[in-house]
Amino acid sequence: MRYFVGFVGFPLGLVIVIYRERVKRFTGDFGFAESWFGPGGTYTAILIFGLIVSLGSLMYALGTLQALFIKIFSPFL
Questions:
Q1: Which CB contacts under 8 angstroms, 24+ apart, belong to 26-30?
Q2: Is residue 33 in some structural domain?
Q3: How far is it, in rounded angstroms, from Cα 44 to Cα 21?
Q4: Is residue 8 part of a domain?
Q5: Which of 43, 50, 63 is nearest to 12 (CA)?
Q6: Whole-model pTM?
Q7: What is the pLDDT of residue 76?
Q8: CB neighbours of 45 closer than 8 A, spacing ≥ 6?
C-alpha cells in the first residue's frame, strides 16, 4: 500500500506544481494565502501544497516519513 501511495502521490504533486495556474482558475483565490504571501499568494500556496504532496508521498513510500515522525514525536510519547 505504501508503494501505491508513492506511485500515485508523487506524480500528483508534480502535476499540481506544473498546472498551478489551471488549479488556481478552478479553485479561485485563497484569502489566507493572499494575506500571508501578498499578491499572487494563491500561486505560492498551491506550489507549496504540491511540493508537500509530492515529497510527503515519496517519503512515505520509502519509509523515511515514519522515521522522521518517530524522531520528532518520540520524546513526547
A1: none
A2: yes
A3: 11
A4: yes
A5: 50
A6: 0.86
A7: 87
A8: 30, 32, 33, 37
**Integer Cα distance of 12 and 61 in angstroms:** 14
Q: Is 21 exposed, middle or buried (0-12, 13-18, 19+ CB in 10 A)?
A: exposed
Helices (H), 1-77: 2-18, 20-27, 31-37, 41-62, 64-73
Q: Which domain holds residue 26?
A: 2-72
The answer as to whether 56 is a domain residue is yes
Q: Name the grid cell of 47.
A: 506550489
Average per-residue pLDDT for the chain: 93
In angstroms, what is the C-alpha Rg of the chain? 15
Q: Does residue 30 sit in helix, strand or coil? A: coil
* 68: in domain: yes
Please state the domain count of the chain: 1
